[in-house]
Amino acid sequence: MIKKRPDYIRNTGLSLIQPNDSGREFLLEKMRGKLAGSSMAHMEAAEKRRVAVRKHTMSWAWRIGVTAALALVNIVWIGSREEAPLKLMAKNHARKLPVPTAAMDVNQQALYWAYALYDFAELKVHFKVPDRAIVNTAMARERLALLLPKLDAPTRATIDRMTSASGGVR
């Protein structure tokens, strides 16, 4: 049985004893390099690279951490205030104009839609509509047109005054 030699023992055919062998100089130079280690310039450059990478990594880590902390503080602080923007938006959100109740008579319903079209301030005073209610003008015109034939004379006169002051029926 043949014994296999370990990998660390290699026979390269080079000899340190032979005087004129070109491989001898190569082998000696290789051994000198292993014994001497790295040069000082190489070690300093490697250390500078290591420090620069560490500083760069640390600076980004700090930046991300501080940004996250500030964002969290802002969210907590803004959310805890009574006048928080989201709470204000929810409170002051523009709502759709409510439809008048069926309990109102035909004349009141017609005035409601006429005020919605031509005099929003009067609508707020008479019918207690929210300040920022949004009026669907097409629907209001349609509802008013349906109610006009059923109105009594004083209500029709009031609506005619509103429409003529605003340039007629649209």
Commentary on this structure:
The model has no long low-confidence stretch (mean pLDDT 77). The radius of gyration is 46 Å and the shape is rod-shaped. It contains seven helices and no strands. Helix 4 (106-118) packs antiparallel against helix 5 and helix 4 runs parallel beside helix 7 (153-165). It has 170 residues and is mostly helical. 64% of the residues lie in helices and 0% in strands.
Topology:
Blueprint lengths: L21 H15 L3 H41 L4 H7 L14 H13 L1 H8 L9 H11 L5 H13 L5
Helix pairs in contact: 4-5, 4-6, 4-7
Summarize the structure.
With 170 residues, this protein is mostly helical. The protein contains seven helices and no strands. It has helices at 22-36, 40-80, 85-91, 106-118, 120-127, 137-147, 153-165.
